[in-house]
Amino acid sequence: MSTSANPSSSTVSGGRNGGSRRREKQRGLPKFCRCGEEATIKTSETAKNPGRLFYGCPNGSEGDKYHLFTWTDERVVEEVEDLKCLVSDLEAELSAVKADVAGLEKQVEHSMVMIGIARNRCCTIL
């Protein structure tokens, strides 16, 4: 399983049975089924998972392995995990930018002092 900066773009390849059929699974919240239909949130009515929410394809049916089916709670956990990583990366970048700004502020302050000194020398010569 690989993770990238875009939380919903990572994929997992392969299948349970190790067959030649290749299956791609995106992490995070799905937007579309592989057939192109928009994913919808549905409620399970099975005895095993009554009332549990899942993402499904409008064209899919129970037992259909081609169309989208994934539990909403599992995908939300993936999304939160990926967003935590993204926030951590952004915090590190923000710290670096703050350090750069502080350095630039010191350079500006030094330049202003040097300009003041140059003006004073210029005026005393006249």
Characterise the protein shown here.
- The protein has one domain (25-125).
- With 126 residues, the chain is α+β, with helices and mostly antiparallel strands.
- The radius of gyration is 28 Å and the shape is rod-shaped.
- It has one helix at 72-125, and strands spanning 11-12, 25-26, 40-43, 53-56, 69-71.
In a few lines, what is going on in this structure?
The protein has 126 residues and is α+β, with helices and mostly antiparallel strands.
Indicate the structural class: alpha+beta
**Major sheet characteristics:** 3 strands, antiparallel
Order of helices and strands: EEEEEH
Proportion of beta-strand residues: 5-15%
Give the mean pLDDT.
Answer: 81
Pfam families: Zn_ribbon_GRF (PF06839)
GO molecular function: zinc ion binding
Region (Disordered): 1-27
Keywords: Coiled coil, Metal-binding, Zinc, Zinc-finger
Key features?
single chain; 126 residues; alpha+beta; two-stranded antiparallel sheet; 1 helix; 12% strand; disordered N terminus
Write the layout of secondary structure elements.
Layout: E1 11-12, E2 25-26, E3 40-43, E4 53-56, E5 69-71, H1 72-125
Antiparallel strand pairs: 1-2, 3-4, 4-5
